[in-house]
C-alpha cells in the first residue's frame, strides 16, 4: 500500500476548511486515501473529522431528534466514535459507551473519508455493502442533512 506523500503527512488538518478537505479527498485515488489512513496520520485525520462534527451540526435540521449514532471505522485498528444528538445539540465522544445506539454505521477508512467529505453517496455505499447499517436505517439515511457537508 502507498505510504502517505510528505505533503499530506505534514499537512495541518486543523487548518484545512471542510471545502479544502473535500477537494483533497476528491483528487486522491482510493489507494492514496488508504495510504493516508495509516498510523499516527490516521489518528489525526479521524480526530479532526469527528472534532468538527459538533461545529458542522445543523440543529434546525435535527428537530426533536434524540439518538446515539455509533461510527465504526474498520481498519487497523477499528476505531469507534459516538455522536449523541439531543435537544438540538450534538456531542461527539471517542470510544464505545454503554449507551444503546439507535444506529451503528460501519465502513472502511476510504468510504468514511468519502462520506464525510461529500464525495461519496451514502445510498450507493449502502447498496454496495461498503457502508453497513445496524439499527434505524431511516435515521442513518438522513444523517447527512444534519451536518454541513461540502457538496462533492
Automatic annotation (TrEMBL):
It holds the Pfam family SCP2. It comes from the Bacteria. Residues 59-148 form the SCP2 domain. This is SCP2 sterol-binding domain-containing protein. It comes from Streptomyces johnsoniae.
